[in-house]
Specification:
The chain is α+β, with helices and mostly antiparallel strands. It folds into 2 domains: about 220 residues, 3-Layer(aba) Sandwich (Aminopeptidase), CATH 3.40.630.10; about 90 residues, OB fold (Dihydrolipoamide Acetyltransferase, E2P). It is built from 7 helices and 19 strands. Strands 3, 4, 5, 6, 7, 8, 9, 10, 11, 12, 14, 17 and 19 form a 13-stranded mixed sheet that branches. A hairpin with a 5-residue loop joins strand 3 and strand 4. The longest helix has 17 residues. The chain is globular. About 45% of the residues are buried. The structure holds zinc ion.
């Protein structure tokens, strides 16, 4: 008699059942909009033959932060998942309405990432948050939520996580983004609410809203697989040269425009900065009044404004404070630069 390979229990989600070794795409109903169009949450369940943890990967919680959608598309296409132990839940577009409207928000103008845990009888955002909690987070051991900078702002690929939690810190390190920022849990956020459900979460931030960035996408794809490997959900890669370690930062701050006008920025994401160093100049349109923007403290640029037109107080640079900016700057360059030529990826950028 053939060996029974389907000992593992099926995965149950939203009334559907997924057998070990199977994949299933399902649309979880959320609500009906004013025109009676159904609002759903699309999920793909990949239920491995072998037992292991349940990991969810979500994108477009903020509807205009589309980089996560591309990262998840490539994950879904990867051959790696054929040998999966455990279960992966892929949710490429959490906020479907923000996604088609190129907007961060939901139609009720709520920021979904301030609406968790939500409620079954609340606003549209609250209903979506509630379904996400009950159908996804409650079934998962770990999660990776994929974000980008806002419109006209780009972020150096980075993990935000509560690094005081040792398990979360190990996951953050395994992801292998150039920098890990300690980020406290904010009320109403997915990360804070998942913590209460005992679900360990990372937030990946990379690139700019409404844009793709090949380097940021690849670091994201590779990072998710490295977390899966850390959780023993996948076997080792063929190539096993030691990966450089990410730089950890305990705190960060924003530098803002001292006046309205036209801004010339002299630093890119990943550049190191020294206290007192000139990072940008804001000028009036005739060039008569110029104001310098100086670094407040030593650190590394992890986010910056791309639009050269500013009002006074607009955020220009996000600077992470690091132990040794010289070393951190060199390490960040090494971690990110060669990924576009990395033979780990095939021609379409899939591992
Ligand atoms: Zn976001």
């Amino acid at each position: 008699m053939a060996k029974d390979k389907t000992q593992r229990a099926p995965f149950e989600i939203a009334g559907a059942s997924v057998a070990p070794g199977e994949r299933l795409k399902t649309d979880i109903p959320i609500s009906l909009l004013a025109n009676h169009t159904g609002m759903t949450l699309g999920v793909e369940v990949i239920h491995g033959r072998e037992p292991g943890p349940v990991l969810f990967v979500s994108g477009a919680v903020h509807g205009d932060e589309i980089i996560g959608v591309e990262i998840i598309r490539r994950l879904a296409q990867s051959r790696q998942l054929k040998k999966l132990a455990g279960t992966v839940l892929l949710i490429p577009i959490v906020n479907a309405y923000g996604f088609i409207a190129n907007s961060r928000y939901l139609p009720d103008r709520r920021d979904l990432n301030r609406c968790f845990p939500g409620s079954a009888t609340g606003s549209l955002a609250a209903q979506l948050a509630h379904k996400f909690m009950t159908e996804i987070v409650a079934r998962a051991d770990c999660g990776i939520d994929l974000h980008s900078g806002a419109v006209h702002r780009s972020n150096l690929p980075q993990i935000r996580a509560q690094i005081a939690n040792k398990k979360v810190k190990a996951l953050a390190s395994a992801f292998g983004a150039p920098i890990v920022l300690n980020a406290n849990l904010r009320d109403g956020s997915l990360r804070a609410t998942a913590r209460e459900e005992d679900c360990d979460m990372l937030l990946y931030e990379a690139g700019e809203a409404l844009r793709f960035d090949e380097r940021a996408v690849r670091i994201g794809v590779k990072g998710v697989f490295q977390v899966m490997r850390h959780l023993n959900m996948l076997g080792p890669l063929k190539r096993e040269k030691p990966e450089p370690k990410p730089v950890f930062s305990q705190s960060s701050h924003w530098l803002r425009a001292p006046a309205g006008g036209i801004v010339r920025c002299f630093k890119r994401n990943g550049d190191k900065v020294r206290e007192g160093e000139k990072l940008a100049i804001v000028s009036d349109p005739f060039g008569e009044n110029e104001q310098r923007v100086l670094a407040k403290r030593d650190g590394v640029v992890v986010g910056r404004l791309n639009l050269p037109v500013v009002n006074r107080g607009d955020a220009l640079f996000h600077v992470a404070e690091v132990f040794d900016p010289d070393k951190a700057g060199a390490g960040i360059e090494k971690l990110g630069l060669d990924i576009v030529d990395d033979p780990l990826f095939d021609d379409s950028g899939v591992i």
